[in-house]
Amino acid sequence: MTAVRELDGSEAGGQFVRTALTLSVLENVPVRLEHVRGNRPTPGLAHQHLAVLETMAELCDADVSGAELGAETIEFDPALESTTDATGWRGQERGHLPGGEYAVDIGTAGSVTLLFDTLLPLASVLDSQLSVTVTGGTDVKWSPPLDYFRNVKLPLLRRFGLTAACDVDRRGFYPNGGGRATLHLAPSNLEPIDLGERGSPAEIRLYSVESASLADRDVAHRQAAGALERLSLEDTGIELTERRESTVSSPSPGSAIVLRLDHGTGIAGWSALGERGTPAERVGEDAADAANRFLERTGERAPPVDHHMADQLLVYLALEGGRLRVPALTDHVATSCDLLETFGARLDCEHDEAGETALVTVESTVDA
Fold first, then answer.
1. What's the whole-number mean pLDDT along residues 303-311?
2. pTM for this structure?
3. Which residue numbers are catalytic?
4. Three-state SS across the chain?
């Protein structure tokens, strides 16, 4: 009988819960999480975390306890059928996850993209295509906007073997949510991550979206104009290859902008959400300011990915090995590394001389 992994979330947030559940399925081992979201003002499972737990349980037909709002202790046992597979992601016994079609309603403006992020690594243990349609918030605070997920994260992960796509039926901004999107995930042979340095910046793509209720104010156009003026591309030599301004239906008024930079070795992205009282031009400028800070860091130790992507890529690094230069060893990155090591990953973090970035390497894959 596989021993239960005992995990303490007293110093972590929702990302800790999501990653722990993903690793539980990938390793096919039960977990017990105590002090869930212990460092948040309102600890325990909120709607979006409960939706992730219930979705993962349904996919695996898992045994679960603590699946209720506010729960601070949860137990999750995927109990997948296992087989010995010498070419599997661990090179040894692993679970096989059946595909299928599922529908999830978060019930609030809880993040659709964070639920999708939890599911993506499962492509490495899928037996057949998995499609999950989620209703909730597509562009909300504290999570990647939908255009970042579709146009930055998925294209980058496809470079390393992921087969995935995302269809959008409706956008959902805060506070009503009500957006609906579908993640299509196919069995994938993931490859080692190789993002140790940044190549020369090549092109910028821009995605600006507004709800139909804001169309008469030209919010999407003004966001894009604000971003491009602040970027001053004519001074950088970087070409704007795509500029997409969209008006979409949504139960709530809202807007978002995403910038994507393609460079020699990878993809980076930045985003900003519209807020009541904030001029649309300023929203675009905020995204551009983040991009400019990224571009200011040059040389062989310049990070190839933005700081949000750095944290999200660690699980793939642990699964298949490789190297990843992160912009900073943030609390999120440190917590993720500690969690991955609990599951057997062998991570090595080497700071540069100025202490501004860190190179995270994995010489061997996760091991039970």
1. 93
2. 0.94
3. 332
4. CCCCEEEECCCCCHHHHHHHHHHHHHHCCCEEEECCCCCCCCCCCCHHHHHHHHHHHHHHCCEEECCCCCCCEEEEECCCCEECCCCCCCCCCEECECCEEEEEECCCCCEHHHHHHHHHHHHHHECCCEEEEEEEECECCCCCCHHHHHHHHHHHHHCCCCCEEEEEEECCECCCCCEEEEEEECCCCCCCEEECCCCCEEEEEEEEEEEHHHHHHCHHHHHHHHHHHHHCHHHHCCEEEEEEEEEECCCCCCEEEEEEEEECCCEEEEEEECCCCCCHHHHHHHHHHHHHHHHHCCCCCCCCCCHHHHHHHHHHHHHHCEEEEECCCCHHHHHHHHHHHHCCCCEEEEECCCCCCEEEEECCCCCC
